[in-house]
Amino acid sequence: MDEGGQLLRPLDEEQNRLEKEIRQLENRQKILLNKKTNAERKERTHRLIERGAILESVFPATVPMTGEEVKAFLLALSHLPEARELPPKPPNAEGTR
After folding, report:
1. Contact assessment for residue 59 and residue 73, using Cβ atoms and an 8 Å cutoff
2. Alpha carbon 81 to chain centroid distance?
3. Which residue in 2, 51, 74, 95 has its CB near the most CB atoms, within 10 A?
4. Is the pTM for the entire model greater than 0.70?
């Protein structure tokens, strides 16, 4: 092999090594983003289930209602004058977060 080829070989090997490392880091980033998305989805699902259970325990009549009926019910409640007087964040009741 000529002298030029001998000088380029280490550079090519380093370039290949760095390209492989970049691919590995990109894959690792994808995995971490997927884990984050899954954790956020799990947290949201838990929150929705918890709030749905609270809604059904406070208003048992909503259990047989469709989603649209529950929405209309909550909208009607939100338009009551007393709803405007509620504090934006009620103090934590015992047993809740």
Report:
1. yes
2. 34
3. 74
4. no
